[in-house]
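Researcher: Structure prediction, please.
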Amino acid sequence: MPRMNILSTSEKDEFDTPPIFNSAQRKQFFEIPSDLTTEVSKLRTPANKIAFVMAYGYFSAGKRFFSSKRYHRPDIEYVSHKLGFALDIFDPAAYPQRTAHYHQTLILTLCGFNIWGHDTENFIHQEIRSMVLSNLKPNLIFWRCVDLMIREKIQIPGYNRIADMILKALQTRKNDLSALIQASLTLENQALLDSLFSKDDDTDPNSEKSPYKLTTLKKISQSSKPAKVSEKLNDLLYLKNQYYQLQPVFSALNLDHEAIRYYAGSVIKSRIFQISRREEEDRYLHVIAFIAHQFFSLQDNLVDVFLSTVKNFENVASREHKERSFERQKEQTRSVQILLDKIEIDVFGVLDGIQTILNNQAIDPALKITEITRILKVGHPHIQGAKSEHSTLRQGIKQHVSDDQYYDILESRSIKLQKRSSGIVKVLEFMAENSAQPLMAAINHYKMKDGAVNKTAPSDFLSLAEYSAVYPENGAFRTSLYKIFLFQHIASAIKSGTLNLLHSYKYQSLDKYMISKDRWQTEKEALIHRAGMQDFSTPHEVLEILDKALHQQYQTTNANITTGRNLFIKISKQKVYNITTPKQEEIESDPLKPFFPEQNYVPLTEILSTVNHHSGFLREFQHWQNRYTKNSTSDKSLYAGIMGLGCSIGTRKMAKISPNIKENALQHTVNWYFSLENVQAANNAVIKLMDQMELPNIYRKSQDTLHTASDGQKFEVRSESLNANYSFKYFGKGQGASAYTFIDERNLLWHSLVFSASERESAYVVDGLMRNDVIKSDIHSTDTHGYSEAIFATTHMLGFSYAPRIKNLKKQSLYIFKSGQHADKSNWLIKPDNYVNADLIIQNWDDILRLIATIKLKETSASDIFSRLNSYSRQNVLYKALKAFGQIIKSLFILRYLDDVQLRQDIEKQLNKVELSNRFTRAIAVGNPREFIHAEKEEQEIAESCNRLIKNSIICWNYLYLSQKLSITENDNNRQILLKAISTHSPMSWAHINLLGEYDFSDEKLKDSFGIKPPRMAA
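Model: Predicted structure follows.
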């Protein structure tokens, strides 16, 4: 069997070859520090001195040593000249190995690096083993090892040494799994797994079109219709039976979620015959993982259906209640007017008559009594009518303010909710926190009674008002209302995290997503060191530094206001501030458009091909399975897949309208090569190329700091999708999702995500910052939707400066430490509103460190953690502590924001780039510019990443074209004009690109291919 190539031949050669420097880089890396000069002077021969400086310079750039036979001649000449020696005095081929080893040891000591040896090799081996267990792709493992060695200051060995370690770990893992399968899989288990390869019992087994049981389980419906829910419940019961019978095997294999997804993904993408011809142990391993994956995914799907159904039910009931309340209010208004008229005529008329008689002194008192009695007798029916009207109105108002009417509406609509939700509650397996035990008792009772509950059902989970409604004093037990309240409480508990699923990807307890407490206790110091979080080890020291910084910022911000140095803030008499941000002055320059090709529209296919030639992004489209064979797909199919998904055309339509692209070949390519990981890696390849280019840096304000931003864009989803939500504001009566894009100062689009339109964007901000290995942000901006105090805390501890644009900034609360409560604040115009809860932070600091370490070590995505943590916000003490810490960082930022007009302008400028990228997205998506054509989250994210790949390729092509334009511009004045035009305009330009394809007006294509006959004319 041939050896697996983790990197391509060119990549291997590039890795083991010294970097190619330009003149500026030679000056940078071959610069001899003062402490190095002494060591160089100690060397005996000029050749050794040159060799030492060469090795030092290359190590400084690549953190590894290279064969002297590969040293570049221009570098040798530069170093020789710099040291004052003849050019031919150093012969790379004659560099003695013993001398080279001595030089390398000395360089490692001077640079503070650890030599590659037994201890460091064991350390990297453990990291590789951990990544292999999660089934990361070999090339990704390779580059993560390189990044880890640089961070840990370990000498990087050659390609073969790292590759051999990875391949050995992969083979060991494969052998271990095969052995475990053989040891733990019984004959009964084998028969169970083999049954998946039989025809589905629910259809005619003799029919050729009858699907295999495995096939019917692959696709999980996104529908919430009762019939579809019923089908999913049947599938879940089948999978549940399989899962629990295979439980001993699962325990033995000990596969983590990433490994389960990987093996299951191969089954989902494969056809039956492809799975059947695998070796027995390998086939069983993949099918076992598939059962677990579908078992987890289907439960998540049903919980999504349940939560969506309950929410929609509540919205409809609430809307009907409001409508009824409005109608009742109108009726009550009319009743009030009738009552007032009656009182005015029938009551006040009688009273006025009595008053007139009493005021008449000419009438005898006895006669007055007689007359008053007569008036009351005549007016009695009218007064009684007014009383009756008053009583009716009073009762109506009493009913209006009570919940009875709302409960009646809930009850009247209960059947529809029960049809969708009852079966889900019965089949799901929950785990409850202590606070949800009363609810858990009710759930168990509901399951035991198969939904046929009565007045003996547990009721401790109900509120007092709900209990009174379900168990009325003078009435029967309201069964339907009880079920509604049960479903509502279950939905609320799932969201709050007090009720979790036993088997799930999305709905486990928060602790399941974090580094386990046992592991944290035993490996805490090592984990903190690996995460580079030593500065945060002691909470008292961290808070003391922040205390001083916050107090100083209060003084600085207020001093600049009182002295008039801050010209853009106004303080009202009520001590309310108003901040303005002036627009940055526009620099007059020639537009950029004339510098791009004017006569020809550049085809998008040419753009992609050219950028691939320079970046090699197509190499990242690896087959889903880590095989020892080369890719079997063509570049043309990959380009067609990128455009079909990225331009929202669809792969089937793309094949139909593209000559030389066969539909089956394109479908095969997209199925096996277009994983989310691959498309993201392809984007990173293009971004890496632009990151290394010189021209994009023209947009950086500072070469030492990189400012990034992110923002969301709404897209309608017309098909049924659980990753979409209704929003009348954006989609009318439809539903949609948000595409969340990250961009840096140089217009590099370095990450994107897709999530439901109803989800808060802040939960996904950290994902983009942590899930990219090319772009390292220093300061990151979002709008208000991307902001939360917990994100302030998290980004600070991860090493990012977070600078959002917050709406209604003056309504934000500012905080200060209690140590500053007695400080003189008499001249402060911007004052704190509350004190920092330092005790809460200190008490929970260990859990905060554990959470941040989990994110920084990339053991769980930040969005998975924050999706659970945000829903815990009312009850979870960790969230409260994280929020309290974030209040310190937020206060520091707001004070800086008020004081620094340049910061505010930079934030606006960076967010404007995201807005432009959103317009760019719609321009690329020519097929369906305002909607996603896919229903499932992963498919939506793949399509979005393809769209981003096309955008990055266009931006990269523009940079390449403009760089070439600059290089051939001989006149310095013209060069400066072009540089000014580039720096003042965005490279995110697409007017010169042909995004619509080409039309064929050849005679052959103009012919009628359907033989349309003349129509029959009306008489």
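Model: The chain has a mean pLDDT of 88.
Researcher: Thanks, that helps.
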